[in-house]
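queue> pop job 88
queue> type: inverse folding (structure -> sequence)
queue> payload:
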């Protein structure tokens, strides 16, 4: 049997509990709800912790010329950390596939451009938004849970936008590199392990050889 439909009173009590428990609870509940609806598109059951977000953000150079593209903005944990580095909002573009998360991101970061689209078409998406090249791509996409073909397509698109000098920053919950470096002609470096995250994560940075 399916789960019984909640009454109006139950829904009201749930809303009151969310208000009492605060914004962190509401954000986690929203994130979990989106994951339940589309587990193949959402990287985790909870947003990145502030510790993981800071570890990702410190891999970019906020003073470098060019735009930073964030793949899979979620509810904005890493977006917030990127802006905290001093990166101007007009130099950050978020690409997010989930329409509800796009809405949340636009509400929270009105000065940042949020583009709804597929990372497999990243270069074309950016050209339609007047961007030919990026200095960094910061990705929260669940690469290791994707097929090899899809993973290769996303990495190829990222480096089509980055060119020879740009860097891609990616976190993973796996024990190995989420990018097959030899296939793409990349060098990769494990930049850190973040234990204070659910689940613990590692941060990698990639460049063209």
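queue> result:
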């Amino acid at each position: 049997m399916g789960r019984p439909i909640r009454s109006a009173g139950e829904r009201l009590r749930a809303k009151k509990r969310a208000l009492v428990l605060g914004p962190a609870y509401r954000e986690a509940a929203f994130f979990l709800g989106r994951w339940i609806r589309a587990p193949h598109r959402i990287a985790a059951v909870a947003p990145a912790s502030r510790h993981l977000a800071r570890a990702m953000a410190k891999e970019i150079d906020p003073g470098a010329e060019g735009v930073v593209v964030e793949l899979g903005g979620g509810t904005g944990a890493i977006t917030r950390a990127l802006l905290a580095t001093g990166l101007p909002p007009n130099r950050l573009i978020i690409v997010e596939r989930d329409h509800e998360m796009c809405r949340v991101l636009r509400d929270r970061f009105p000065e940042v451009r949020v583009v709804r689209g597929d990372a497999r078409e990243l270069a074309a998406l950016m050209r339609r938004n007047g961007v030919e090249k990026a200095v960094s791509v910061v990705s929260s996409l669940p690469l290791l849970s994707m097929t090899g073909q899809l993973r290769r397509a996303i990495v190829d698109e990222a480096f089509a936008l980055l060119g020879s000098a740009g860097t891609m920053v990616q976190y993973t919950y796996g024990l190995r590199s989420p990018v097959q470096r030899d296939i793409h002609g990349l060098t990769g470096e494990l930049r850190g392990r973040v234990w204070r995250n659910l689940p613990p994560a590692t941060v990698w940075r990639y460049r063209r050889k």
